Amino acid sequence: FGDADLAGTSRSFHVQVKEVKERLLPDSDDNFAKRIDPEVASLLELRLRIREQLNAEEESRYRREVDEKIIDAVLAGNPFEVPGVMVDNYLESLIEEDRRQRDASTDHEARDQAIREGYRDAAERTIRRYFILDAVRRQEKLIVTREEFDERVRAIAAQVGKPEAEVRAIVGQGRRRANLESDLLDEKAMALLRERTAVTAA
Fold this sequence. Notes:
This protein has helices spanning 30-36, 43-77, 84-99, 108-118, 120-139, 146-160, 164-171, 174-196. By secondary structure, it is mostly helical. The radius of gyration is 27 Å and the shape is extended.
C-alpha cells in the first residue's frame, strides 16, 4: 500500500453494480453480408469474394518473392556498380517524401542521416533493378500497345471504383501516362525474365 498505516491490514468493500452490458454480435446472415459489402447479395457470395481476395494477395506475394529472387540471380551473374550520384539522388527523394510526413518536433538532421545510412543498400538495389529491366526492355524492343494501356486504365477504374473516363483523364496524359507506361514495360520485362529463369519462392 502507499499508506504505511494500511500495510498488513485487511478491509471490506461493498460494491454496487449499477449496470451490466453484453456485446451482442450480429447474426452471420445475408443482411450482415450486405452491410459489410453492399455489392454482394448473400453471405456465401461475401465468403467467396473474401477467399478470392486472399488468394489474389497470396499469389501476388509469391510472385514478388519469385521476382526478387530472379533479380538476385541476374545480379549475381552480372555484377556492376551503380553511379553514386544516382544513389544520392534516390536517397534525397526518400528524404523529401519523409519530410512531408514529419511533425515539427523531429530532429531533421538526425532523421535525414538515418535515412541515408539505413536505406543506401536498398537504394543501390533499386537502381540495379532499374538498369536490369531497362536493359531487357531495350534488348527485346518492348512497347506498350494502346490495347494494353486501355486495359490497365479499365483495371485501375474498377479497382478504385471510379468511371473509366475519369481515370483516363488523370493518367492518360503527361507524366502520369509516362509513368504508367513505364510500369507496364517493367512488368513485361519481368515477365520475360520469369519465363527464362527457373526460380521458385521458399
